[in-house]
Each structure stands twice: as C-alpha cells, then as structure tokens.
Amino acid sequence: MIEITLPDGAKKKVQQGATPMDVAKSISEGLARNVISAKFNDTTVETTTPLTIDGTLTLYTWNTDDGKKAFWHSSSHVLAQALEELYPGIKLTIGPAIENGFYYDVDFGEHHISEKDFPEIEKKALEIARGKHDYKMREVSKADALSYYKQQANEYKVELIENLEDGTITFCDHSTFTDLCRGGHIPNTGIIKAFKVLSVAGAYWRGDENNKQLTRVYGISFPKQKELTEYLHLLEEAKKRDHRKLGRELELFTFSQKVGQGLPLWLPKGAALRERLESFLKKAQKKAGYEMVVTPHIGQKELYVTSGHYAKYGEDSFQPIHTPKEDEEFLLKPMNCPHHCEIYNHGHFSYKDLPKRFAEFGTVYRYEQSGELHGLTRVRGFTQDDAHIFCTPEQLNEEFKKVIDLSLYVLTSLGFDNFTAQVSVRDLDKPEKYIGEAENWEKAEQAIINAAEEKGLNFVVETGEAAFYGPKLDFMIKDALGRKWQLGTIQVDYNLPERFDLTYKGSDNELHRPIMIHRAPFGSMERFVALLLEHTGGNFPLWLIPDQAIVLPVSEKHEKYAEKVLSSLENNEIRALIDNRNETVGKKIREAELKKIPFMLVVGEQEEASETIAVRRHGGEDLGSVSIEQFSDLVTTEINSTLKSF
Question: In what residue span(s) does the Aminoacyl-transfer RNA synthetases class-II family profile domain sit (predicted)?
Fold first, then answer.
C-alpha cells in the first residue's frame, strides 16, 4: 500500500500501482467522470499513470487552469495528426498549450495553408477525436528516439532530442500518431467535442530570426460545443475592444514605419490622457512620501553589467552606442533601477533618513523581435511608473504593505475590481536562473507572504515566476471579457543593494545594507492604457476621458450661444468641444457616440432662451434640460464618486 495526500490534507491508502483515476473513483463517481488530468509530486501525469510511491496528488477537471492546459496540450496532438494526414510530408516541431488554446509550429514544405483550409482541418480533427483514442505514454531510449525522427527526416525533432539529457525519452501515441512529448494528457481524444482553427502566423524555429520561418497554426478546443460558441462570441467582442482599433478611432496614438516598429507616437488626446494618469499617480505618491527623480535615457554598459541586467537582457538590448573619442559604450536604458541606485549612492544616509522613496516616469528600451510586437502591449520603447524604496529590515513589512495599499488604490480607481494576487518565488531546482544569496531570497519571499497575509489579500504562490533578482507580488486582474492580465508588480530585492554597495549608518554607528523594493502600479504606461482601453471598450472613467462633453448647436444661428456654453464649461474645468459643422443634430450625436464622448449637450432656440442645455448621456439616456451650473455639479459629483482620495 502507498499513502496519497490530497490538496486538503486528507490522506488515502491505495494499492501500489493505483492510478489517479482510481483515486478519483474512491472519492466519488462524479469526480471520476470529470477528472481529466493530475499532478503527482509536482509532476503532471495522466489519469492512467501508475502511482508507485507515497506522494501528493492533485486531480484536475476542465474547470481548472491545469485541466485546461492538459486538454489543450492533448488537442495540439490531434491538430498535428490532422495536419499530417491532410498534408503528407510536413515536419512537425512543437505544439504547446497556451493561455487560450494551443498552437503547433509546422514546416509545411511545399504546402501552404490559409483561412479557407480551416474547415477541412477542423473536420479532420473532429473525425480523429470521435475515434476516442487513448493517449498512451511510452519510454524509448535516446538512440531509438533519434533513429525514429531521422528516418522521418525531421531535423527539428532530432535537434530537440539531441539537446535532451541522456536517458529515457517519452513518446505519446494515440491512434496511428506518435509525437515526442513529456506528458500531461487527457484520457482519450473523445473528450474533445468542439475544435476550431483560429489563425496562422509565421514563427521562427526556436524564436530565432536566423532560423527558418515555420507556420504556426493556432487552435482552441472544448468539451462542449456550447463553450466554443461562447468563446467565439467573446472573440468577436474582443475584436471590437482591440486597443489598436480603439486607439486609432479615438485618436490616442499611432505608429510610423519611419520612426520604427514598436515605437508609439502619442497624439494630443492620448498624450493628455497619459498626463492625467501620471498626475493621478504623482498626487497619491506625494501623499505617500515619494520624491520624483529624473534619469537619462542611456547609461554606460558597465552600469548594467554591475546590476546584472546586461547578462539577463543583453540579447534583448539594442546595440551599444560608442563614443568616437572616449571609446565608451552606452546602452539605451533597459531598466530604471540601476540609475536609482546611483541616486541613492549620491547621498549619505543614516537609519533616521530611511525609507527613501524615489519615483520616476522613466522611458526604457528593449529589443523585441518584430513578430512579437503588438500594439501598445509589446513595444520597444515604453515608460514605466517606476519607484524604488530603500529601507531598513525593520521597515520592510510596513513599507511593503503601504505599496500594496497604493497599488489597490490605483486598480480600484480605474475600475479593475476583479483581481487576485500572485506571489512569485524561486524554483529551487533551477538556482542558475537567479542571482543573490539563498538566505536573502528566503527572507524576501517570507516578507512578501507575510505582508500579503496581513493585508488580507487573496493570493496564490507560483514557483519559478520570480524575477531573476528577487521574488515579487503581482496583481492578476480579470477584465470585462474575463481575460487575465498581470498588473501592479511589487518586488523585494536584496541583490542590487549588494551589487551597488548601498549603505546606511545604523543606530550602532556601523554601515548596513538597505533593502530595496521595486514597484510599478501601472507596469508601463503603454501596456496599462492598452488594457484600460480593452477593459472599458474606450469608455474611460469620466475623470480620465479626453473629452467629457461635446456641445451640439442645432443650427448655425445657435453657434454663438454654443460658444458661450463651451466657455462656461471650460471655466468649470470640464473638458469639452463643439461640433459646429453644417450637419443634422442626429448625425452629430451618432458620431459623438462613436467617439465615446460621455455627454452630448444639444443647444437650440429653447435652450438659448432659457440659458440651459439639453443633456444626453453616451448610450442614449436623456437627462433633460439643465443649467450649466447643474451640469457642472453632475460631472463633479460623478467624478468624486469614482475617484476617491488616497
């Protein structure tokens, strides 16, 4: 007998060789009907995997993230088999599950596929799925694995196998199909009831531009047709909310090939929106004791070597800038933290001076491959709302909690009310990924967990997701479409103070190392605006939106009164404009609706005579005729109800 520990701490004695499915059946028939994957001692396994030692077992259904991952990974095999049968001679490479669905990278050789081929691929995939073929894992030697793929002339799989350690390698079989795979599948293909090919794109082998470009086929699958229908509806809604589309329609930002890919140009309305976001955060930061600093856009290469960023981001950095006479090497700034360390080093601080809180809206640069660029969410130049707090060990807990408070204030003020927290810690099995002493890592990880618990956050701990220099806490928000995004990073860092020899004089008159907290509630201005656009559909909070109202004169003879109304609104600090084109009021209203302007103020003969405005809210609600003062009070009240003081 072996002892199995379940997630709730319950223990079960089962026969050696029992499977996760056997354990599920021993709990309930309902669970057994729904379980599709499992994790045993931190390794993803099939429900048919024999369990031979004591361990911890987690059972996954479709309703769990890990269950979906296994479902979609299994579906990628079905996609690969369908493609092989439809296009003989293709070479399969890799096919992982992703956040929503899966993809398979394929060398199609002489074949080419496009959207018109999707229905045929889907038909073939569902035909395979209906066969209810079991997923069976088997071990092979490295030599046999190499021989198998060399016979198929698949140099991609050969390269993958050659890079694996010597020993046994696993293949996955279902039906007549075989693939190189670590495992983590659903019981059989029959569970896949709905299958959709979403798109195709180019992708370099192993993400390297110097390698051959493959075809990446994206897909998604579900255990019920209804869920696919709902997902496709969600996709259509997402297209309407695409920040690239809305940014263009609302005249917020643009891109220019002459300026360069991944380098956004902020138009007047977008720049004003950014300025309001910055002012909002600066005001809260000032109350929280932050001091604003400014650092240059470049720094000596040696600065980033010292910080460790060059070793980590060297490949993602632009080429160094060389000075012709001094032969110095400068880099476009990839991070603000090294500069802030040097600002701290400028002073001579005692424990009485700490904490020091330096904040900056600093623009940084990373080289992203052109295929990875995406609107404002993946760019080559972006502005971070960066701040670094230098504190004593005794201050760490309190300072971290204050940063949590600030992050929560930012998120809730902007309508992100649905979120969880994620504490990202080291993967102890991969120490080479991180810098710094293990003892300091342990202190930092515990400090974050303690602060999160004391603030009552709903959080999960994710192993292996820490930054290379320290653990972190991220807020994982869920937007209006139910998609998850990471915002509001807070990190504890013992390493940079060591690398930059940062010190303060303690009460014992000796020098000590401060602890550094990194934080960025927005993350980057570009990405935050993109998420905010898609979350709100362009209907920004009233305090933030570029144009709060538009005055619509009924005819030319009412323009003078319309100008008077506009002037009064501006005097009341309401952002408004006027549409005095020779068009019907109906057309003006329709166009104002498309521009997401919250209030349309119609002025005609009756309004001019009574010195009022006829107010129509975005979406069609008629608020009737009111005085300008009453309207100003309405706007102020609405803003105050959503924008609380920090």
Answer: 242-553
Whether residues 474 and 490 share a domain: the answer is yes
Q: Write down which residue in 13, 30, 61 finishes a domain.
A: 61
Residues 52 and 83 in one domain: no
- Rounded distance between C-alpha atoms, residue 472 and residue 459, angstroms: 12
Domain containing 479 equals: 253-295+336-536
Cα angle for residues 521, 525, 526 (degrees, 5° grid): 135
Q: Are residues 287 and 346 in the same domain?
A: yes
Q: Model confidence over 136-188: pLDDT tens digits?
A: 999 999 999 999 999 999 999 999 999 988 778 999 999 999 999 988 999 99
Q: Is residue 532 part of a domain?
A: yes
Coil/strand/helix, residue 38: strand
The CA–CA distances, whole Å, from 40 to 52, 219, 464 equal: 11, 28, 18
Cα-based angle 464, 467, 469 (whole degrees, multiple of 5): 120
| 172 annotated ligand binder | no
* Domain annotation covers residue 331: no
603/512 same-domain check: no
Angle (CA) 466 464 76, round 5°: 125
Ligand-binding annotation for 73, yes or no, is no
Query: Within a domain: residue 194?
Result: yes
Is the CB of residue 221 less than 8 Å from the CB of residue 252?
A: no
The reply to whether 224 and 275 lie within a common domain is no
- 337 annotated binding-site participant: yes
Q: Which residues have a catalytic role annotated?
A: 337, 366, 384, 386, 388, 472, 518
Collapse the DSSP code of 6 into the 3-class scheme (helix H, G, I; strand E, B; otherwise coil) and give the result.
coil
Quick check: 182 and 171 in contact, CB under 8 A?
no
Q: Would you tell me how many other CB atoms lie within 10 Å of the CB of residue 486? A: 16
